[in-house]
Amino acid sequence: MTKTGINILGLSGSNRADSFNTQLLSVALECAKRQGASITQLDLGAINLPFYNGDLEASSGLPDTVLDLKKQFEAADGLIISTPEYNGFFPGLLKNCFDWLSRRTGPEDPILSAFDGKIAGLMAATVGGSGGIRSLTSLTTQLHYLGVTVLPRPFSLTHAGKAFNDNGSLGIEQLTTVDDMVVALLRALRRSD
Ligand SMILES: Cc1cc2nc3c(=O)[nH]c(=O)nc-3n(C[C@H](O)[C@H](O)[C@H](O)COP(=O)(O)O)c2cc1C
After folding, report:
1. CA separation for the pair 141, 155 (Å, rounded)
2. What is the DSSP-derived secondary structure letter of residue 107?
3. Tens digit of each residue's pLDDT (9 = 90 or more) over 122-136
4. Residue 130's domain spans which residues?
5. Distance from the CA of 119 to the center of ligand 1, in angstroms?
6. What's the 60 CA to ligand 1 centre distance in angstroms?
7. Which residues line ligand 1 (CB under 6 A)?
8. Average pLDDT over the chain, rounded to whole?
9. Is residue 48 assigned to a domain?
10. What CATH number is given to the structural domain containing 172?
């Protein structure tokens, strides 16, 4: 059976206003939209999650921002994540988001419900020549731990400072590779139900 009406949730691992990863995410989400998916682009910087704190959780439960985020994850079929690389790893902005999302609202909330059944397409953009390959490795390990299926062949954008045109578009060669990743993600999601 194939699934229709695919919902894609997009996350950037950068809260920088002119983030290359946020630009890359926008490009990928536009590809998903052209392929018929419904898209939501999260702005983790604007959501401003508190740093995970067990005392805060014990005294007042999950913050409303986390409950909203959990609902958005649960409503999504697939994820597209674009991550910077910070010191050879994916950044704390994403880790903190995942740590909050891994917490249960109560005993009736299944373990890791926010991540259940999700398939993710990953990308990384860095200003240097590595293209964030180490952040992709660490992010893949994290997502596997949380129960997310990660598509093979993530997209890696090197020298991101020179990659985008003034209107935020990518060159045709890179755009085609992003589009291929998005098509593969949607194909996997349509098969998954
Ligand atoms: C704290 C910090 C650590 C970084 N570490 C790496 C790194 O390990 N490898 C790398 O290629 N770039 C590294 N960079 C450079 C980032 O790739 C670059 O700033 C990138 O543009 C950040 O993504 P953004 O444009 O989406 O904010 C680092 C930047 C910061 C601020």
Report:
1. 16
2. T
3. 999 999 999 999 999
4. 7-191
5. 26
6. 35
7. 14, 16, 19-21, 84-88, 125-128, 130, 132, 160
8. 96
9. yes
10. 3.40.50.360
pLDDT at position 155 over 60? yes
Helices and strands, number each (H, E), in the chain: 7, 6
What are the residues whose beta carbons fall under 8 Å from the beta carbon of 107, sequence distance 6 or more?
A: none
Pocket test of ligand 1: the residue of 41, 85, 155, 158 to mutate, having most ligand atoms within 8 Å of its CB, is 85
Torsion angles phi and psi, residue 114, rounded to 5? -65, -25
Helical ranges in 76-151 per DSSP H = 92-101, 133-146
Determine, yes or no, domain membership for 138.
Answer: yes
- Provide the sign of the torsion angle of the four alpha carbons 54, 113, 154, 83, taken in this order: negative
How many domains does the chain fold into? 1
Among candidate residues 52, 152, 58, the one with its CA nearest the CA of residue 100: 52
Say what the pLDDT of residue 106 is.
96
* Interval between CA 126 and ligand 1 midpoint (Å): 6
Task: Tell me if residue 37 falls in helix, strand or coil.
Answer: coil
Cα–Cα distance, 63 to 57 (Å, whole number): 8
Residue nearest to atom 22 of ligand 1 (CA): 84
Q: Residues 83, 155: contact at Cβ < 8 Å?
A: no
Residue pointed to by tokens 């950068």: 14
pTM: 0.97
The pLDDT of residue 168 is above 70: yes
